[in-house]
């Protein structure tokens, strides 16, 4: 029988692109359902150093402060990952903040094909008024109940970051269903506002049609998806996308 649990994962790595880069630390924090159906952050958490099999670049040391001597005697990723990603008793899904990053390293062969909840994508949907959607901005904007400040420090280390993310996940699960979170996580991010450029901070619903159409041809899939979603709402057509400018078609 599968335990009513989701496992939050956070990785510290030598860079962002495997196989050129590798994991040097993994942290986890479980979120479990009570008998009354409410979700809570459990005491099951931890972290393991991982030998990345290569030197850690100074630019990434400066972020997480993990140095080569910390990981010299640690197990390799292929040896440590499966037992953490597939815990005894199972899990309903894995979760991470901007889960696409963790999924680059936590491949289906290591995770057993687990589904993922992206707390970043789900926060965009349920907490659109947040000034930003990073793990730490959400932490201080929301001030989640029960989050112990010291356990959530230092930032940019695997277990403390997973612990903070787990509080966001708990509250997301207590606001809507796991199925809904998984569905949102499978789509691009639905940004509540324009993230950059001259229109930065404007809500999609406030944009003029020609500006909205321009965003609908953006290279960024989250921007494109957000603009297309507003266009469908505006036109009442769930299938029709805005016609892209002639220059975009030529390119």
UniProtKB/TrEMBL annotation:
| Residue numbers spanned by region Disordered | 232-251
Cite the InterPro entries for this sequence.
Ribonucl_H, RNaseH-like_sf, RNaseH_sf
Molecular function per GO: exonuclease activity
A Pfam family that this protein carries is: RNase_T
Alphabetized, the UniProt keywords read: Exonuclease, Hydrolase, Nuclease
- Entry's SUPFAM superfamilies? Ribonuclease H-like
Stretches assigned to the Exonuclease domain: 5-178
Q: Please state what the protein is called.
A: 3'-5' exonuclease
The species this protein belongs to is: Sphingomonas natans
